[in-house]
Structures are given as structure tokens and as C-alpha cells.
Design goal:
InterPro entries: Fe_hydrogenase_HydB, Fe_hydrogenase_ssu, Fe_hydrogenase_ssu_sf, TAT_signal, TAT_signal_bac_arc. This protein has 112 residues and is mainly alpha-helical.
């Protein structure tokens, strides 16, 4: 395909115009998204601060949690950082990177 100088300049001008237009549209779209995120964040905080909607904003004020950790007859009677709560509610890290590397070296494809 042969292109003379005038056609080349015209094509470059059109492509530049589309690039600038696309960049402006992308900026406007990003600004709209950020405005929406700001409004959403403001409404979530306003709803959270309204005591008529959420009476229990903190988990430590929840009567069911208090009953769970009750010292007399609660299931986790040894407290929030006790042995039973640690055993039931916490997870433990197990390093499996060596096994994953061995599988990769054998040709297995891992999705993580």
C-alpha cells in the first residue's frame, strides 16, 4: 500500500484525535467512578454512624458475643485470647511452597 505525504498526515491527525478523545473519555469515566466511590463511602459511613439503624456497631458490645465469652457458663469461658478460642477460631500457616515447586518441576500447571 502506497501512501503519500498528505494521506499520511491526514491519517496521523485522525489517529491523534481518536487517541485524545479516548483519553478524555477515559479520564471522565475514571472521575465518574471515583465520584461514585466517594458518594458510596460517605453513605456507608453515615449509615454506620446512625444509631437508629445499627444499634450494635462494635462486636464487643454484642450480647451474644458477651454470652459466648462469659466466665461462668460461656462456651469460650477462658476469654477472647484463651486456649479454647485460639484452638477453634484461629488458623495456622503451613508452608507448601516446596511441594508446589516440586509439582511445577514435574510439569503440573498450578492455578493460584
Amino acid at each position: 500500500m502506497k501512501m503519500n505525504r498528505r494521506a499520511f498526515i491526514k491519517t496521523c491527525g485522525i489517529m491523534t484525535g481518536y487517541a485524545v478523545l479516548g483519553l478524555n473519555l477515559a479520564k471522565e469515566a475514571a472521575a465518574d467512578v471515583m465520584d461514585f466511590v466517594g458518594l458510596r463511602q460517605k453513605s456507608v459511613y453515615a449509615t454506620d454512624a446512625n444509631p437508629k439503624i445499627y444499634k450494635l456497631r462494635k462486636s464487643q458490645d454484642n450480647p451474644m458475643i458477651k454470652k459466648l465469652y462469659d466466665h461462668k457458663d460461656g462456651f469460650l469461658h477462658d476469654g477472647p485470647c484463651g486456649h479454647m478460642s485460639h484452638h477453634l477460631l484461629h488458623t495456622h500457616y503451613i508452608d507448601r511452597s516446596a511441594k508446589a515447586a516440586a509439582l511445577k518441576s514435574k510439569g503440573f500447571k498450578l492455578n493460584f
